[in-house]
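Summary for the steering committee. The consortium agreed at its last meeting that each partner would contribute one worked example illustrating the joint modelling workflow. Our contribution is presented below. We chose a case with several input lines so that the handling of multiple components could be demonstrated. No manual editing was applied between input and output; the record is shown as generated.
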Amino acid sequence: MTKAQERFFEVFTDFQCYILANMNKGDFNGITATHYNLVEYIYRKGKTTGKKLAADFGISAPAISKQVKFLLENDLLYQEQSDEDRRIFYLKATDKGKLLINTSESFRGQVTKQASTVLSKKELEDLTLLLGKVLAQMKSL
Amino acid sequence: MTKAQERFFEVFTDFQCYILANMNKGDFNGITATHYNLVEYIYRKGKTTGKKLAADFGISAPAISKQVKFLLENDLLYQEQSDEDRRIFYLKATDKGKLLINTSESFRGQVTKQASTVLSKKELEDLTLLLGKVLAQMKSL
DNA sequence: GTTAATAGTTAACTAAGTTAATCATTTTTT
DNA sequence: AAAAAATGATTAACTTAGTTAACTATTAAC
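What follows is the complete predicted structure of the assembly.
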């Protein structure tokens, strides 16, 4: 490892540690970070299916099924059976689910907020670009 | 949110999602990522205590105790009782533990490797600097 | 010297993941 | 067109990593 790589490794280690240690804190109303992430994701996508969620979140279909069941029971999501293929149940955020996302500040929202207080606009853009490049490279493997 | 913030949020969301989905994959010899992270952390620190690990990893002392027990039983760590304070048990990596870290590539190692294939030296340094700034800001809250 | 605090562990429990099996539906094969 | 295979979602049984509360031992404080 070069010096530059070592420094990156060091910072990235701390960064990952911080993410893992803090992203699950501050859950409110009994809604965990996982629940929140699912609702936010579905809200941003507009609609999606359990199958896709499992793929995108990298966990098994039954695991998604269980979390989604909780979110359905708590009226944060609702299902819509597809007319073309009756096996498929689309998931959408309810008004209550949308409200949750819009009124609460996610971990990512906090990072974004803090990033833009401590970085200039140019720096934030650079960081976005560089992080995006690394991510694209990782995903392409 | 400004455009720049929205773009950062978007990339960071993907980035976090990727970390969570992938960091626990590829565990080898029945050693999970958590085990690996603990051994790596202790190895890099030289020696540490359960108390400190709990604080640094942001989980409870009993949770650390249970993981450490496994690592002791599997000869990846060993304990050394402090002479000054007999309540304290220092944890260190065994040769087997060190070998594990040195011969296997952690998730962070992979990210570092891929980051430096897709970024120039200057870009990697910039990314390290910017990520470090954001992290320091988050930690200071 | 007794009381209070601290490092670590054990016990009992919870939550979120896993695989295997099942149901309903759609697609493919013959 | 009927039978067989595949697919999306769920349920059941299980595992694992975390939690809090209670305990042991040691040290610090009054």
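Strands of chain A lie at 77-81, 89-93. The helical segments of chain A are 3-22, 33-45, 50-57, 61-73, 95-103, 107-118, 121-139.
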